[in-house]
Design goal:
2 strands; mainly alpha; two-stranded antiparallel sheet; 4% strand
């Protein structure tokens, strides 16, 4: 988004917040509450329905399990995926084909 569009959007949002009596603190509190709710999620389906694992199992999960799907399929990852390992560096200095037709793309 370019700077002019961004500034225009900020001005619009400030105007609407003022119009409805929303303070920045209210917005920050609402966002914090949403992030806490997201952290509590333990299972989620493709349409965004979620369950924290407490209380009665929701209907969407019961139906999926009765249809043969495992509950682990819907479980959210407890820990982040490991960082990818850096690729090994290849030493091309001793390449026997360097400078030959075999080293050129399309072998022309």
């Amino acid at each position: 988004m370019d700077e002019r569009k961004r500034d225009s959007m900020i001005a619009y949002l400030r105007h609407r917040m003022e119009e409805f009596g929303i303070r920045p603190e209210d917005l920050a509190a609402a966002l914090a509450t949403e992030s806490l709710a997201k952290k509590a999620e333990r299972y989620r389906n493709a349409t965004g329905d979620s369950w924290d694992g407490n209380g009665e199992m929701p209907q969407w999960l019961k139906q999926a399990i009765s249809a043969g799907q495992s509950i682990e399929h819907f479980e959210l990852a407890a820990k982040p995926a490991p960082a990818p390992q850096p690729k090994k560096q290849v030493d091309w200095s001793n390449d026997p084909f360097a400078g030959t037709r075999l080293a050129r793309p399309n072998n022309r």
